[in-house]
Amino acid sequence: MNITRITAIPLSYRLPEGKTVTMGVGSTLKRDAIIVRVDTSEGLVGYGESHPGRSPGAIVSHIHNTLAPMLVGMSATDVVGTWQRVHRMQFSSHGLGAGAAMALSGIDMALWDIRGKAANMPLYELLGGSHKRLPAYAGGIALGYQPEQSLAEEAQSYIEQGYRAIKLRLGDNVKDDIKRSLHVRKAIGDDIDILTDANTAYTIAQARRVLPVLADIHAGWLEEPFACNDFASYREAAKITPLVPLAAGENHFMRFEFAQMLEAGAVQVWQPDLSKTGGITEAIRIAALASAFRIPINPHSSATGLNHAASLHFLAATENSGYFEACVSQFNPFRDMFGPTFSIGKDGCVEPPSGPGLGVEVDESIFKDFPVIDGPGYVVKF
Ligand SMILES: [Mg+2]
């Protein structure tokens, strides 16, 4: 069974006027997503998701014009070989690096979908896992910068749905970040896990002031206080308190960057995104590397049900699995456009889909509702 065609479909959705969510990466204007379809000589079709990297047209062009010609004709089950070819041609020398990793990720996810469909097995089973309940937190583009009262109400609404963990957006300014964190902890009580994410917006001086407060409210982690490769700051911040682990990984590509993070010795929670980091094939390797150091894997989960499903299967087959990031964004029509891929239970847990492959039925007729919109998805104040 060979790969006969690779197609990437870019999608966009503009948020309604006045409905932006503001966080450390800026204020959202629109959501973008890229669906990757792989056709095979046996007629089996697989789907995956590539992160758009704030430049959906560029990733789609890279898939069509560079990666597809490289991979068409290869065995559709050869996820190691396809990974290796793209790595050799796009990473080793004169390639696109992170852009290529995002493009490859969608293809790799589609190939795993095909592998599961060919074996008539849900992906978690093919990966060696089982159908199990997985702890989830309320994440995605939600719980942004807003008055404490409305933030606590939003948090409460997720807890009422069943979530036992939520993620607050920090990186606004020290004073408001501290005020919001203390208020939400007081409002929701001590039994809910509060995770925090600064989306790379902190300086080390700001982290020094915020981390002791996060220790006081028993925050589960502080995610991406600094830019992805600013290892010196991560190392410094890890000395401030042993009580709040630092988390990162959604902006780290391929296991080699995770190995650098390991060498820096400052990030205790890893968050590879299956639609960015080099696909499921590479995420398995990253998880194995992490497991040897007792580092939990909490994948970042992006936009559509395809990546959500892939993350659930992956977590159900990973020994050192942490939370599933459940996208609770109010304005993300991509999450459920193929039908919901997860539902939160009263125990705060979700389950992987049980159909073959990713277990997602893709109806392509919906794509016409979301024509791609060029331009950045966020605006940032500098
Ligand atoms: Mg994040």
Automatic annotation (TrEMBL):
Q: Which cofactors are reported in the record for this sequence?
A: Mg(2+)
Mention one GO biological process in which this protein takes part, according to its record: amino acid catabolic process
Q: What keyword terms does UniProt attach to this protein?
A: Magnesium, Metal-binding
Q: Which Pfam families does the UniProt entry name for this protein? A: MR_MLE_C, MR_MLE_N
**Record InterPro entries:** Enolase-like_C_sf, Enolase-like_N, Enolase_C-like, Mandel_Rmase/mucon_lact_enz_CS, Mandelate_racemase_C, Mandelate_racemase_N_dom, RHMD-like
Which superkingdom heads the taxonomic lineage of this protein's source? Bacteria
Q: What PROSITE patterns does the record point to? A: MR_MLE_1, MR_MLE_2
Provide the GO MF annotations for this entry. hydro-lyase activity; magnesium ion binding
The Mandelate racemase/muconate lactonizing enzyme C-terminal domain, residue ranges: 148-244
The molecule here is called Mandelate racemase/muconate lactonizing enzyme family protein
